[in-house]
Amino acid sequence: MDSFSLTESKNYRNAQFCFVHGRRRRQGQCKQVHTYLTTIEDTRNQSFSSMDFSLCLSSPIISTLVHFLLLVSLVCPVCSTEIFNYPLANETFRPKEEVHKLNIIINHLQQINKPAIKTIQSPDGDIIDCVVSHLQPAFDHPQLKGHKPLDPPERPKDHSQIEEFGENFQLWSLSGESCPEGTIPIRRATEQDMLRASSVSRFGRKVRRGVRRDTNSNGHEHAVGYVSGQQYYGAKASINVWAPKVANQYEFSLSQMWVISGSFGDDLNTIEAGWQVSPELYGDNYPRFFTYWTSDAYQATGCYNLLCSGFVQTNNRIAIGAAISPTSSYAAGQFDISLLIWKDPKHGNWWLEFGSGILVGYWPSFLFTHLRDHASMVQFGGEIVNSRQTGSHTSTQMGSGHFAREGFGKASYFRNMQVVDWDNNLVPLSNLKVLADHSNCYDIQGGINNVWGNYFYYGGPGRNVRCP
């Protein structure tokens, strides 16, 4: 069994950085432009007035619409007023539905993109806003209004801090830029992000589905290790990071931990964290650090990252949703991230830690029903979406894109998996089970040793001769 050394991982950071940094930026990237629609007429009573918003003038919808409205406002003030109030009977420029959708998008972006005291341009095209901590989206929640982030909680006992790992693991921070104390970095959501979503109302949310790992999973396929049958108060694992290929915009590939409670019906509660490649959500194929939560089986509650009021971020150097660098390479350097989720014994909130002692933030306990007490299941592993657009199985990769039998350096892995017990102790897994619901496409093999503790290899290429 090959052992993994974090010293070895650090030796590959510079080489990987050069590769990632040299990638071509996304097409259509443009700079921020601040447009103040109040210059049209301060006295108008319309939904766009007094609105300061950031938009990308390369957008065919917004660019043309804004220029047209500005022109009409100068030539025909009465006509301009009518356009803003949408009363045109014979509208030929844009359907009323397009204008209405644009209005909804702008309003939603204003809710989730908070005022920044500093803005950082990432090499991959992301814009990172440094937002005052108590103004982040979480504090839009009625139960958090007027509050500020909580102080750090008591960490689980036997919490090893042998692994030394810095916060500089994301593309946006490799230039040395950071957010000031008292602020948090937030990846700015754009109009293009929202237009890629299936609907504005579902932006930043997972598609509702059953969580049971079986063949009736609505296109979602898994290779996971899991424990159940006891009361769990957290989980920890080191997750190997790759950049798997995703076949199309409507699919994703992720590797994460799930902390679960409730039945597998409408009352399912989950807390999730890991990395994902999601062209629909982010507009590219970079692996990104992410979080998720729901208290009603992905129906109306919860979201990715900070795209709704929920998760409270406390760290000013990690941007949830930002691209990870470096990543692992086949038969070469391996890179993993260590994540810990646990329930604060004093206040009951669920905290997230990255690496050794780097607190990212917490999910307030009031967000949940069953998870206000404890979890009844913990899962680790990979998930992909198989849309079958071509009529055959997707070629979207899970993990490294290679099967578990290839082992270290070739197959992706989870290692040092543990759970937190009722007394806030980190303990090894005693009854880990592994399951791949489409083993000819993606598989999993578990094991245990003195270096990695509980571990497994998992993943696969998707479509192949045994997975048509």
TrEMBL record:
Residues 140-159 are annotated as: Disordered. It holds the Pfam family Neprosin_AP. InterPro entries: Glutamic_endopeptidase, Neprosin, Neprosin_propep. Residues 214-468 form the Neprosin PEP catalytic domain. Residues 148-159 have a biased composition (Basic and acidic residues). PANTHER family: LIGASE, PUTATIVE (DUF239)-RELATED, PROTEIN, PUTATIVE (DUF239)-RELATED-RELATED. This is Neprosin PEP catalytic domain-containing protein. It comes from Lupinus luteus.
